[in-house]
Specification:
The complex is a heterodimer of chains A (205) and B (60). By secondary structure, chain A is mostly beta strands. Chain A is 2% helix and 39% strand. In chain B, 40% of the residues lie in helices and 15% in strands. The chains are: A mainly beta (205), B alpha+beta (60).
């Protein structure tokens, strides 16, 4: 039987769609237009990779590049130093990679100022306390204005993709120093409301 | 301008080498101060007194 039209009112009875209806419902009537009689159970019968030409990703695994964890740290602790040796700030955060192949994307912004003295401030981003591994630095004379009473400075941003090659807890921390020892003081989080931040993202390798 | 702890320290000893940490720049009571390179320590009381003196000048 080729089903073309069903008028339920004219039939005066119900139609069992499971047993009494065959054929194709045209797309114009809300159907798929398919003539298939067997359909795939997507919940249990689909495996493998859906090709990109069929709307899939083509990927056999979603691991590479996947964000595995995100940690955010903010800090408003005031610190100052008149020395030229680097001092770790309180903007410090640990992350434990799930694999040695993972990469850590560090997005960091540290507010700093050279408050007095005619030099500047030096900034660093490190892996490990005490500048164990210096990942990035801003070591020109940040904030110098040739003005001895005050050399204001904004903030330093770091964007760094690190490969710590470990599954042990790994700490990232910023540090700062006075450009020339004994020439005024360098500060971080100078004003009330100043807040520095660090975001750590583990990226599957 | 609010006078900070290091402003007062440098006012008392312009060549002092130190580092400090505090909840806020003016919170001398809760500050941790490390005196470096053989710098003679200055008491928190003296620093506080100097902060008040400098702030009075700033506010005048």
């Amino acid at each position: 039987m080729t089903l073309t039209t069903i008028n339920l009112a004219a039939l005066g009875q119900t139609v069992n769609l499971g047993t009494e209806v065959t054929g194709t419902l045209p797309t114009g009537n809300g159907g798929t237009g398919s003539t298939a009689t067997t359909f795939v159970n997507a919940a249990s019968n689909v495996t493998g990779t859906l090709a990109t030409t069929n709307g899939g990703t083509g990927a056999t695994s979603f691991a590479p590049g996947k964000v595995l964890q995100v940690i955010n740290k903010t800090d408003d602790t005031y610190q100052a130093t008149s020395g030229s040796s680097f001092l770790d700030t309180s903007l410090s955060q640990a992350i434990t990679p799930s694999s040695t192949s993972s990469k850590i994307l560090i997005i960091c912004e540290q507010k700093a100022v050279k408050a007095s003295g005619n030099t500047g401030v030096k900034m660093r981003l490190n892996r490990g306390a005490g500048a164990a591994v210096v990942l990035n630095q801003f070591q020109t004379i940040g904030g110098e204005t040739e003005e001895a009473t005050r050399n204001d400075f904004g903030s330093t941003a770091y964007f760094h993709l690190d490969s710590p090659n470990t599954t042990s807890a790994t700490t990232y921390v910023t540090s700062f120093a006075n450009y020339v020892s004994g020439t005024g003081a360098a500060r971080v989080n100078n004003s009330s409301g100043d807040r520095s931040s660090m975001i750590l993202m583990e990226i599957a390798g | 301008m609010i006078i900070h702890i290091d402003d007062a320290i440098l006012s008392l000893n312009s060549t002092a080498i130190f580092s400090l940490k505090a909840p806020k720049g003016w919170d001398i009571d809760n500050a941790e101060i490390d005196w470096l390179e053989s710098t003679t320590p200055i008491s928190k009381e003296d620093i506080k007194t100097e902060m008040e003196r400098l702030q009075a000048i700033e506010d005048a």
